[in-house]
Design goal:
about 450 residues; mainly alpha; Growth Hormone, Chain: A
């Protein structure tokens, strides 16, 4: 879904396109139509996640995705394209609060960051494959190709197990123990974590376990162990969106043309090079998430993004004054590739990794929905209004705005982000409750 507009929008400008009057406004609506339903669908995803479980919520979410890609592939007009995009956006919005929660609950602390980082790796790999298909084939063929991923994902989900923590929340203790031992084994570390989970469950009152939505909201806004991690995550997710993560993905060809010109290099080649950097960097990020502390990675990645965006801003400004300079064209090319590297090792994977680790268990459905709502709202605003910013204030000022967001996220993490590396979910939650610092 995220990479499709990057190859679809340029093909709309072809002479044989069924849209003859495509412009920046139409482009922005086509791109953002998939993002708009993502802003409110996380609330449904959080509700389903709590009611029917993580597994079946994931399985049901594949239905609109499969339908959406079929509609896009056979579309003959703009309306059906947008309908298909909306359906694929519903799929992404539903999965937003589910995927990181399921991985965080079902995996051990030692491999949890690697698998949570795999979310971003899969996104970047999917974007590369979509752009690769769109470079050599029509957007219709690319849509049929994209259909395979939710279909295969639904098959794998059908044969997967439910989260043991969901079984515990539903007072299905025996099933929880069986599933936990099935996916985590019976090592000393696993048995210790299971004992802690059971102890925390026993300490909860029946009233707490069966609390209403209002009681959940009240707890979320009054207890520091609940609202502190949510505030940190909301601000970090929103700053990550305004760094331009998805703007480059959705408007890849236009970004390359705006920074390097139409005649300097093949725009599709640069786009694929950027995607390749993202994939390799995402694999590296999975390793770094196991090796480095979270705050270290956030500071390295955020600072790198900030420097690259400032370089892009300065070079684009100079190119507007000296448009024929071949030397100046090297700087934005290097900055774009370096920008993709720093985004992929930190800004993309780290927020989702932290979401799986920081969100409190007792309000995980509501908290993850609020988090995804704020993130996807920022996502929509960035995608919808970035073309306006590039056109009206220029690329150099737009990149400076992105750089300021990167700086904000870096400062936020350096001051307030707790360290979660090698901590169990219960240890992280208890540390917020006791107001202890996890950075040490």
């Amino acid at each position: 879904m995220m990479g499709f507009s990057g190859i679809f929008l340029p093909q709309l400008k072809n002479d044989n396109s069924f849209i003859k009057d495509a412009n920046g406004e139409i482009d922005s609506w086509i791109a953002s139509s998939a993002v708009l339903p993502m802003t409110f669908m996380p609330f449904f995803g959080g509700y389903f996640m709590d009611k029917i479980g993580r597994k079946w919520s994931h399985f049901i979410a594949a239905i609109p995705a499969i339908s959406g890609w079929i509609i896009i592939a056979i579309s003959q007009n703009l309306v059906s394209i947008i309908i298909g995009r909306v359906l694929t956006g519903i799929y992404c919005g539903l999965l937003g609060p589910i995927t990181s929660v399921y991985i965080g609950e079902a995996t051990s602390p030692s491999i949890r960051p690697f698998l949570l980082g795999g979310i971003a790796m899969n996104l970047t790999l999917g974007t590369l494959l979509c752009h690769l298909m769109g470079t050599f084939f029509s957007w219709q063929t690319t849509a049929w190709f994209c259909l395979l991923f939710p279909f295969i994902g639904a098959i794998f989900t059908f044969f997967s197990t439910e989260s043991p923590r969901w079984y515990i929340d539903k007072n299905r203790i025996e099933e929880a123990c069986v599933v936990f031992k099935k996916i985590r084994g019976e090592s000393e570390e696993s048995n210790k974590e299971l004992d802690v989970m059971m102890e925390n469950y026993k300490n909860q009152t029946e009233c707490t376990r069966q609390s209403s939505l209002w009681n959940t909201v009240h707890e979320l806004i009054t207890k520091p162990e609940l609202y502190k991690p949510l505030i940190i995550l909301v601000l970090y997710f929103m700053s990550a969106q305004f760094v331009g993560i998805n703007v480059v993905t959705f408007y890849a060809i236009d970004i390359v043309e705006g920074s390097l010109g139409k005649n300097f290099v093949n725009q599709y080649l640069v786009m694929l090079a950027m995607d390749s950097v993202r994939v390799v960097s995402s694999v590296l990020a999975c390793v770094l998430l196991r090796k480095l502390r979270r705050r270290q990675l956030a500071i390295i990645g955020g600072s790198g993004c900030c420097i690259c965006l400032i370089t892009l801003s300065i070079s684009n400004y100079l190119l507007s004054i000296i448009p024929d300079s071949k030397v100046l064209l090297v700087a934005p090319l290097v900055a774009l590739l370096a920008y993709m590297f720093f985004i992929s090792i930190c800004v993309v994977p780290l927020p989702w990794c932290l979401a799986g680790e920081l969100l409190p268990q007792k309000v995980k459905g509501l908290a993850s929905s609020l988090l995804c709502f704020s993130s996807f709202s920022a996502f929509f605003l960035a995608i919808k209004f970035s073309p306006f910013l590039f056109t009206n204030i220029g690329s150099h000022f737009t990149y400076l705005l992105f750089a300021s967001s990167a700086l904000f996220g870096t400062v936020l993490c350096s001051i307030f982000l707790p360290e979660t590396k090698n901590k169990t979910l219960d240890e992280i939650s208890n540390a917020f409750k006791k107001d202890r610092c996890l950075n040490k």
